[in-house]
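From the shared-data thread, chain only:
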Amino acid sequence: MRPYYRPGNYAMKNSVGYLMRMSVNRVLPQMEALFHDQELTFSQWTTLVALHDGRITSAGDLAHNICHDAGSLTRLIDQMEKRGLVTRQRSKQDRRVVTLTLTARGRALVEALAPRVMNFWNKLLSGFSHAEVDTLIALLTRLVLAADPRASAKLHLSKSPIFTARKKSA
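Structure, as tokens:
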């Protein structure tokens, strides 16, 4: 493919990096505000959601998937463990490995707060068709994988089954 950007067409208005940064800077405070009346912060929420389906079980994979540095993630997990939201369990096969899992309380919080997050995104994306949202997700996923191709095995970018069980039983 011929390079997209050239000296004559590169500007902030069409810079993918700039637009992504502006999107994050605009959305993040709104996401944090969703949790102002909850016992969780937005960072704690993202951690619990990442652990929800059980595919991410180590602190390293968790840090990689939610873009947290190891030090701040350790403090975050310490807080959530004290509050009974996650557990740490050392592997019997390899004592260096510590597995993270949600407690029933952590799982219940994810499931109780997920509608709030989905409502936020549905409102924000209300001007987009379903096909456009699917395309946006696919393109962003490809961009994430292109930015760090060596990490693709550690990234868990498929749909989260938070409501799979609830929908079946409803």
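Residues 1 and 146 are 15 Å apart (CA to CA).
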